[in-house]
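Example record

Each entry pairs one chain with its bound ligand, magnesium ion.
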Amino acid sequence: MPASASNEMPAADLPPRTEKLAASIRQLCKEYRLSSGSVVALRDVSFDVPEGDFVSIMGPSGSGKSTLLNLLGCLDRPTSGGYFLGTDDVARMSDDQLADVRANRLGFVFQSFNLLPALSVLENIELPLHYSGQLSRTSRQRCERLAQRVGLGDRMDHRPMQLSGGQQQRVAIARSLVNDPRFLLADEPTGNLDTSTTAEILDLLTELNNEGRTILLVTHEPEVADLTRRTVVLRDGGLIYDGPPTGARAALQATAVRATASEVHR
Ligand SMILES: Nc1ncnc2c1ncn2[C@@H]1O[C@H](COP(=O)(O)OP(=O)(O)OP(=O)(O)O)[C@@H](O)[C@H]1O
Ligand SMILES: [Mg+2]
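Structure tokens for the complex follow.
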């Protein structure tokens, strides 16, 4: 029995939304086909993300959270279903158009920071501009401002190894902002950080959300989800809850009970 009956409602029956949408997904499915068989990682997931929303995605390991984020980030294509970024139909985009969307409209933050160890803080922030051939004196000044913005104005020449985990994640967040995207996607951005550093990164993300940026973040930590406006819970690739973060705990407990029961039966 799903935790939220409203999620069972077919998309067509949902009330019309009046706010502008940053993203809208409809019956999204992702199946990985391997020589040993296939894995259905996402099944019929539908929800809307209004502009300016701050959404946490939760669920047990293997429930499809990263798969969903990769599809939303145009890093992968769905097997079926629809995905609209604003009013643009992502499914109809060419590979070049998708690359353009990734470079200019989306920002990515990952659990493992993904910084290049040989580059300085400033060079890491500049990296997307380097790849797209957009480096210039003004863009360098913009990157310096971003470094200051995330509190690393006095660390611009440091290498990632010379920074704490929280500082490295702040470099990654500054890098994700280099093209001023309105939509940020973060896969367990605090997964490798201690409690106080986690709070620091969440403050920064909240500030970015308060500026009007839409944020979707994957997390295993209820304390992190509690700081977002809304939580989506996945189980076995399906959406089982979509509502306030406080209500997500019951849905997650149900998934834990179910996992324990299936272990007992094994
Ligand atoms: N490239 C791939 N090829 C085949 N199967 C995959 C691939 N990526 C993910 N899967 C499978 O799809 C399912 C969902 O994986 P996904 O990485 O989205 O889970 P997750 O919820 O992010 O888990 P975690 O919390 O451990 O990060 C898993 O069963 C996984 O093994
Ligand atoms: Mg994952």
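The helical segments are 65-72, 95-104, 121-131, 137-149, 165-176, 195-210, 222-225, 245-265.
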